[in-house]
């Protein structure tokens, strides 16, 4: 069942034939990549800080978590602000403040101060995802949004890949503060480039006065939308799977299947690269094959993930190497590649003039799972076994798939 409202027309582009929107996509992707370079780059730096400062593994891990906790305190306010004031200044300011705050990290050697600064960095990172999603909704017609948001989402693994390659090299040859300088400069440059090139489409200025509802009123409208619940649940459960893959797949292969750390690392890289491809392809085929029905792409991702995890559980003790690469690619493509389709599904279900807040609300829920999932999964695996933990995840996925199917059936019927 399609919703018919002024919002559907609004979400079309002011200049649908203009090549300017593809320039905007490139700029938004780069701004996302440079911001992610900072947040994802905390992982490699934490390993260096641990060695130089004699931190425990828990202390090093907490540094990474601090960046992830930050968006919990900012995304709802930022989403509301995006709906009222537009993307140009907020995304630019967020990227610049993120870079400048992170620059202060280079001057501290005190653990608690470092923890505080990283938490503030995470707060500024809260502008990146909802702001970038809003850009796609503003400038791209529905038939092109899947491809566009998939490309923009590729900025996240691109930023992570740059960080994984560049930061250890700079730290080893010039000291870790030089890595922080590079991250800060690139983040600020990404924000300034976005500020220089991005312009709000005319449709935003025409309807800006309609977005002045109070935050509490808009949140009540969003949270009372029962039709959005299955989509929001999908985000929480699928991001749980995603973070488990990122945090535990290498450990599972290395410890349970005795692959060795080098091969386990290659398998994890395969998963991440395949996930980047999946974020583009799955969202794009929702444009082409399913005519903008994002839920079909999410259903495919859920059931394909169930199949992949089941295969993971029943792997023999010494499986062929090629099968591990195939399975890792499969899990990455569907278990990480779902995210672009999810963002569009959330944004396109938003009430009029509330896309930014709707995306921020969904991402805030996801952020809780991002923080908790790796630790809870590891705790269950320690208490029982990896097979037991994977099986619980399968049950969650099946339940979510059935919930999404029920929603679809009710809409058709």
From TrEMBL:
Q: What is its main location?
A: membrane
Q: How does it sit in the membrane?
A: Multi-pass membrane protein
**Pfam families found in the cross-reference section:** MFS_1
The record lists the membrane-crossing segments as 20-42, 62-82, 89-105, 111-128, 149-172, 178-198, 228-251, 263-285, 297-315, 321-347, 359-381, 387-405
User: Where does it reside?
Assistant: Cell membrane
State one molecular function term (GO).
Answer: transmembrane transporter activity
The record's Gene Ontology cellular component field reads:
plasma membrane
* Keywords assigned: Membrane, Transmembrane, Transmembrane helix, Transport
User: Which CDD domains does this chain map to?
Assistant: MFS_MT3072_like
Q: Which InterPro entries match?
A: MFS, MFS-Transporter, MFS_dom, MFS_trans_sf
Domain Major facilitator superfamily (MFS) profile, residue spans:
21-411
Highest taxon above the source species: Bacteria
| Protein's recorded name | MFS transporter
């Amino acid at each position: 069942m399609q919703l018919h409202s002024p919002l559907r027309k609004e979400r079309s582009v002011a200049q649908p034939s203009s090549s300017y929107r593809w320039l905007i996509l490139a700029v938004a992707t780069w701004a996302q990549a440079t911001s992610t370079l900072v947040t994802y780059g905390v992982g490699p730096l934490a390993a260096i800080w641990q060695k130089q400062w004699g931190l425990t593994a828990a202390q090093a891990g907490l540094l990474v978590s601090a960046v992830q906790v930050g968006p919990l305190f900012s995304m709802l306010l930022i989403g509301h602000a995006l709906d009222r004031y537009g993307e140009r200044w907020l995304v630019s300011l967020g990227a610049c403040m993120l870079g400048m705050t992170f620059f202060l990290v280079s001057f501290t050697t005190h653990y608690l101060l470092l923890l505080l600064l990283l938490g503030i960095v995470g707060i500024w990172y809260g502008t990146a995802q909802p702001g970038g999603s809003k850009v796609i909704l503003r400038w791209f017609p529905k038939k092109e949004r899947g491809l566009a948001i998939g490309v923009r989402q590729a900025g996240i693994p691109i930023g992570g890949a740059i960080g994984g390659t560049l930061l250890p090299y700079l730290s080893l040859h010039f000291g870790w503060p030089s890595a922080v300088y590079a991250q800060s400069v690139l983040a600020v440059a990404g924000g300034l480039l976005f500020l220089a090139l991005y312009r709000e489409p005319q449709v935003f200025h025409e309807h800006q006065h309609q977005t002045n509802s109070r935050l509490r009123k808009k949140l009540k409208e969003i949270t009372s939308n029962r039709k959005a619940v299955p989509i929001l649940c999908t985000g929480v459960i699928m991001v749980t799977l995603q973070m488990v893959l990122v945090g535990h797949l290498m450990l599972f292969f290395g410890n349970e299947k005795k692959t060795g750390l080098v091969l386990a690392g290659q398998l994890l890289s395969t998963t991440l690269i395949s996930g980047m491809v999946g974020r583009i392809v799955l969202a794009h085929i929702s444009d082409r094959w399913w005519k903008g029905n994002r839920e079909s792409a999410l259903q495919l991702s859920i059931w394909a993930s169930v199949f992949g995890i089941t295969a993971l559980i029943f792997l023999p003790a010494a499986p062929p190497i090629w099968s591990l690469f195939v399975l890792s690619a499969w899990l990455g493509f569907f278990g990480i590649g779902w995210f672009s389709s999810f963002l569009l599904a959330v944004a396109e279900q938003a009430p009029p003039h509330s896309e930014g807040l709707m995306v921020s609300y969904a991402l805030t829920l996801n952020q809780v799972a991002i923080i908790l999932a790796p630790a809870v999964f590891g705790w269950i695996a320690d208490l029982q076994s990896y097979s037991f933990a994977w099986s619980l995840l399968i049950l969650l996925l099946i339940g979510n798939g059935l919930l999404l199917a029920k929603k679809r059936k009710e809409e058709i019927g």
